Amino acid sequence: EWNHMRIKCAGQRITVILNGKKVTEMDMSKWTSGKVNPDGSEIPSWLPKPFAELPTKGYIGLQGKHGDSLIWFRNVKVRSL
Predict the structure, then answer these.
(1) Burial of 31 (0-12, 13-18, 19+ CB in 10 A)
(2) Which among 49, 53, 65, 67 is least buried, having the fewest CB atoms inside 10 angstroms?
(3) Beta-carbon count within 10 A of 33 CB
(4) Strand, coil or helix: what is 29?
(5) Could you read off the pLDDT of 29-76 as tens digits, one per residue?
């Protein structure tokens, strides 16, 4: 079974839709600290730069394997909004 994922990045707002259902949404501008998330939980020390300061233009990276799971990408399309 293949899944269909759509990722929309508009400025600092990121929305992920999987098989037609919104599964997550993030507003990077809310991550102003390099130590705690907006909900107060701790940010790992290896990620000290606040998301609000990260660029919204540049390279696109697709992360691969998680643990023993395989991940495949097919028919990847990128377009400008």
Answers:
(1) buried
(2) 67
(3) 14
(4) helix
(5) 999 998 999 999 999 888 878 999 988 888 888 877 677 777 788 888
Among 8, 48, 9, smallest CA distance to 31 is for 48
Say which amino acid occupies 49: K
d(CA 14, CA 80): 14
Q: What is the pTM of this model?
A: 0.73
Q: How far is CA 55 from the centre of its chain?
A: 13
| Tokens describing residue 47 | 């990620």
What's the token pair of residue 67? 């643990």
